[in-house]
Amino acid sequence: MVREKENELCLNEKGQKMRYMNHMPNAEDFEVKCKHLKTALQCHEVSTEDVKRVREFVYRQPVKTIIDNKIAHLIEVKHPKRKKSEETLTNKGQAIRLDYFLRNINSDRLLVCQKTFLAALKISQRNILTIGKKKAEGQIIERRGGDRRSKKYEEQKNSVKKFIGNLHASESHYNQVFYRTDNDTKYQNYLKRGAELENYQPKQIELRNSIKKIKLENVETLLKKYQEDWEDNGTFAWYKNLLNERRHPTGDEEETCPESDDVDPELCDCAEEDIGLKI
User: Fold this and answer.
1) Structural domain boundaries, residue 25
2) Which residues pair with 77 in a beta bridge?
3) More confident call, 19 vs 55
4) Residue 191's pLDDT is what?
5) Which residue has the higher pLDDT, 215 or 64?
6) Is the pLDDT of residue 184 over 70?
7) What is the mean pLDDT of residues 209-231?
8) Residue 13, pLDDT above cutoff 70
9) How many CB atoms neighbour CB 181 within 10 A?
10) C-alpha to C-alpha distances, 207 to 200, 214, 248, nearest whole angstrom
11) Nearest Cα to Cα of residue 181 among 227, 217, 242, 219
């Protein structure tokens, strides 16, 4: 998986380099296509050597943000002094004027038209207008790629998290009765979510029920997981009394087995006196 990611990054870097590199370093494809006769523009003074030097300067690093910043240095943004009225103004955006410059061998700036500038740098008119607009705003930001989706609703997510955090937590409602054992002084029970009962005790079995010795030992093992001194825990008082009755029988109630051959000794309660418990 890591190797596939590295290969993907390498392919992206190669693709970016192939796209933004100088494919014509010798400027063999440059040709002055403008036919205007204005004296203010110096398009016909631009030589092939000048275009070669400009391309080497702009495309030295094949990274779009770096290229755009270098092109922005060759453009001047001017705002028109005369403003149209709101009735005649169809475009709501602010109008700007762009002046394009190329440098010759002597580093003198030559004012050229848009066609000559585009032919010298081999870029599109849309790219030039975008760079000019961003320069007028005072910044050129790379908005391609990256993770923008996760931060799109970050403010709403934080608001929801804050709202949930302010809610009062309730005990679990999946069990019929939930016994809290984390705090002895504040012992609380719940039958339903949000319904609090005070001094609730589990129902004791009134009928006689014989508890096997194995089951009794399992109860002790189960309760010992709460610590070795579980007997000092007030939460388990009912279970403590139950075990004490098993360990120290009172002997108040004694049953005698009827001396009859019809009674099976295995079914008789007194046959399990040593290992049973009557509640």
Assistant:
1) 15-84+91-137
2) 98
3) 55
4) 44
5) 64
6) no
7) 59
8) no
9) 11
10) 21, 21, 20
11) 227
Q: Is residue 31 part of a domain?
A: yes
Could you tell me if 189 and 208 lie in one domain?
no
The pTM of this model reads: 0.43
Residues 38, 64, single domain; the answer is yes
Q: How far is CA 164 from CA 87, 113, 156, 171, 173, in A?
A: 52, 61, 12, 16, 19
Q: How much is the average pLDDT of 99-119?
A: 88
Query: Does residue 222 sit in the same domain as residue 185?
Result: no
Residue 10 has pLDDT above 50, yes or no: yes
Tokens representing 98?
């762009």
Closest by alpha carbon to 106, among 24, 37, 22, 42?
42
Considering the domain architecture, whether residues 127 and 30 belong to the same structural domain is answered as yes
Number of domains in the chain: 3
Residue in this structure with the two tokens 């061998």, named with its chain if needed: 105
